[in-house]
Amino acid sequence: MITQSKLKELLNYDQDTGIFTWKKRTSNRIKVGDIAGNTHNCGYIEMCIEGKRCLSHRLAWLYIYGYLPKLIDHINGDRQDNKISNLREATYQTNIYNSKIRSDNKSGVRCVSWDKIRNSWEVRVKIDGKLKHYGNYKDLNDAKKIADKIRSENHKEFYR
User: Under CATH, which architecture does the 102-158 domain have?
Assistant: First the structure.
């Protein structure tokens, strides 16, 4: 893995924009001052350094703090917003708390799903790795209020 000193030798990083620019020419395609990186198929910005693909948000963390945590979370959920103020260390679980709503979610509300047997909206929230049931509700808005309350109390700063 690249070191902080090597990274700073090759690139400039603007903390306010989250953008990297090349400080040193490393190939014929790169010019000093060019914006570094391209959008990866998952929506993250990545760049190639010394023949290895690296995600920009991880490089931003390394550039500022000098180490790489296991996971880094984009606070606002925008995978291309690599301002250091938008990045924070996360665990696998807290990173999931801040993830986008699944595309197959029919309620449009996190942690709320339709219970066919009870013919009602069911609230289930994962807390500390355990899925907990918080009731069934005839009205979707009631289920949403409960889910949001439970999530905000338990997921704290990772609640979105």
Answer: Up-down Bundle (1.20)
**Which sequence spans correspond to the domains of the chain?**
4-90, 102-158
Which has more confidence, 96 or 148?
A: 148
Beta-sheet strands, E only, within the chain: 11-14, 19-22, 38-39, 45-49, 52-55, 71-74, 87-90, 112-115, 120-127, 130-137
- Decide yes or no: CATH 3.40.1170.60 for domain 4-90: no
The amino acid sitting at 48 is C
- Tens digit of pLDDT for each residue in 69-126? 999 999 988 999 999 999 999 888 777 767 777 788 888 888 899 999 999 999 998 8
